[in-house]
Write a structure and sequence with these properties.
Elements (H helix, E strand, L loop, with lengths): L5 H5 L2 H4 L3 E5 L3 H13 L4 E6 H7 L1 H13 L5 E8 L2 H10 L3 E4 L6 H16 L4 E6 L3 E4 L2 E3 L12 H8 L3 E4 L4 E2 L10 H10 L4 E3 L7 H10 L1 E6 L1 H17 L7 H5 L1 H17 L6
Parallel strand pairs: 1-2, 1-11, 2-3, 3-4, 4-5, 5-8, 6-9, 8-10, 10-11
Antiparallel strand pairs: 6-7
The structure holds glyceraldehyde-3-phosphate and zinc ion.
Length: about 280
Amino acid sequence: MALVTLKEILANTRKEHYAVGGFNFNGYEDAQGIIQGAVSKNSPVILMASMGAVKYIGLHQVAGMVKGMAESVKIPVCLHLDHATDYDLIREAIKCGFTSVMVDASAKDYETNIAESRAIVEFAKDYGCSVEAELGKVGGKEENIVVTDASAAFTDPDDVPRYVEETGIDALAVAIGTVHGFYKSEPKLDFDRLEKIVKITQCPLVLHGGSGVPVEDFKRCVQMGMSKINVGTELKAAYSKTIRKMVGENPESEFDPRKYVGPVKDVCAQIVAGKIDIFGSADKA
Ligand code: G3H
Ligand code: ZN
């Protein structure tokens, strides 16, 4: 089916207590694997391209590839531009057919974050594209966005209502203790904070930094009302590990690249299917 917006794909999440996975991809094999995993569970899915992935693959190429993948299956697929700080790129992505973008002005002060996010919402409206934005600062490293422990900041629930109202966003990324990249120690999620945020807004909430979050924490977040959960690093690491393994196992005379990279599809599909079971989105397509 045709690509769907983030607003549509998250519409029933809170009331039906499930979250839709947002999975980062960097090429054809992992993107196809993500779709495959979602199809195997009859689940909606969000394919996320970072600015780095877009620069690597090409904006039109990403849009064309994922549009084609979505149209070949019967589950809802959303194409999302992740953590975008380049507003020209955001506008180009929207024009190109992305059905969701994340404007990441989380490093800016509150008023600037509101103004810049609202400007993107205004632009996106004409194209029927959804917008996610972040309030607070999720720590860790997401491509070239680095947030040190000292500068990471949890979302203040009191800041949420005005932010959601004035920006007009479709989904809100919250900082409640997860970090981007591998965890140095077990993550400690601030569930009291999440509870306050869920109570104070109807806006669908997004958990970033999903790689390495314990299963029970995921489940608790979803039960409390988290609508979208992002997973990137785990897929990237599995992709690289698979290539290393396939190169090691094959003789030098093997020159068909599909032998090396093809298995990435199944590996990613398995990871995605596992997350879908945890997030509760199986059979929600
Ligand atoms: O926006 C992307 C996600 O927050 C991914 O985080 O790489 O730690 O799984 P992760
Ligand atoms: Zn993120």
